[in-house]
Amino acid sequence: MTPRQFEFVREYLQDNNATRAMVRAGYSARTANKHAWRLISHPQVRKLIDAALADRDCKVKVEATGMLESMASEARSELLTAREDLQAATRRLRFAVNTVRDIERLCAPVNSKPLAPKISPEPKPVALAAPEWRPISPQPAPMRFSGTMDPAYHPFSQD
């Protein structure tokens, strides 16, 4: 391979554009568009480009794996911190509730009412009496027609 071909490979790896890489590597700008595909399909050039791209992909994968591991580590530490904060808040709440209960117990002989009002349960619903049973009359009531429901009414009649 020639030094220009090595330079072409180096330039091609920057933006994956063969025409621009040829111009930057020192080839003629007038013929770069025509000859770029020939140079990129040259077996030695293609082999070098493929090896460089595979190496770059491997580095990107390693970097991505490292980033994911560090992000997972940060997330775990944040979860542990949040869990510890929740446990501390729960302990403080339990302490406050127990303190109020102790105060109520100590003040019970002095005061007849507790500090917190007692909530009584809701009253149970009373069963409703069954409605009185009456037999249905054997004959239905006669139907009455009024207005447009009158059988004698016809919309086109001249009456």
Task: Characterise the protein shown here.
By secondary structure, this protein is an all-alpha fold. The protein has helices at residues 3-15, 18-24, 32-40, 43-107. The protein is rod-shaped, with a radius of gyration of 46 Å. The model has no long low-confidence stretch (mean pLDDT 76).
Brief summary:
The protein is an all-alpha fold and 159 residues long. The protein has helices at 3-15, 18-24, 32-40, 43-107.
DSSP E strands, number: 0
Largest beta-sheet characterization: none
Structural class: mainly alpha
Amino- and carboxy-terminal Cα gap: 112 Å
SSE pattern, N- to C-terminal: HHHH
Helix content: 55-70%
Overall mean confidence score, pLDDT:
76
User: In terms of quaternary structure, what is this?
Assistant: single chain
β-strand percent reads under 5%
Weakly predicted, low-confidence segments: none
Shape: rod-shaped
In angstroms, what is the radius of gyration? Answer: 46 Å
User: How many alpha or pi helices?
Assistant: 4
Which tags fit this structure?
mainly alpha; 159 residues; 59% helix
Helix and strand layout, with pairings?
Layout: H1 3-15, H2 18-24, H3 32-40, H4 43-107
